[in-house]
Amino acid sequence: MVALAAGVFGAVVSYTLGLGQLTQPGPGLWPFAISIVIIVLSATLAFTGRGLQDTERFSRSSLLTVVGLVTLVGLASLLPVIGFEIPSLLLMFVWLRWLGKESWRSSIVISVGAVAAFYVLFVLLLSIPLPRLI
């Protein structure tokens, strides 16, 4: 039910951003589409999920999902303030090191490499106007 509520909230908020059209999408079009998918999947799971037998039980490790969500909210709040480089680097590092249990070295190398690749792809090649530090 939490996912269903989050999907409805996301659909309402993204609709207020403006959907535009498929040929000229507005800023809320893709978040709206994803929210609709979340609503449909959550409603399906709400009706059929009780009979499932191969599910995972909630445990202490289930809290990692909450940590992932909190770090995504942190990324979204820091993005317009200091650009995408530092928040993206921190997000990837936290996910790799503490959520993925990777080594310090691989977490640092992969985080820096991925953010550099995102910078080249989105900023230099695709010219997407992301808020950025550099």
UniProtKB/TrEMBL annotation:
Q: Which domain of life is it from?
A: Bacteria
Q: Which residues form the DUF1468 domain?
A: 4-131
InterPro entries, per the entry = DUF1468
Species? Nonomuraea maheshkhaliensis
Instruction: Tell me which UniProt keywords the record has, alphabetically.
Output: Membrane, Transmembrane, Transmembrane helix
The transmembrane segments are 28-49, 61-84, 104-128
Q: What is this protein called?
A: Tripartite tricarboxylate transporter TctB family protein
Q: Does the keyword Ribosomal protein apply?
A: no
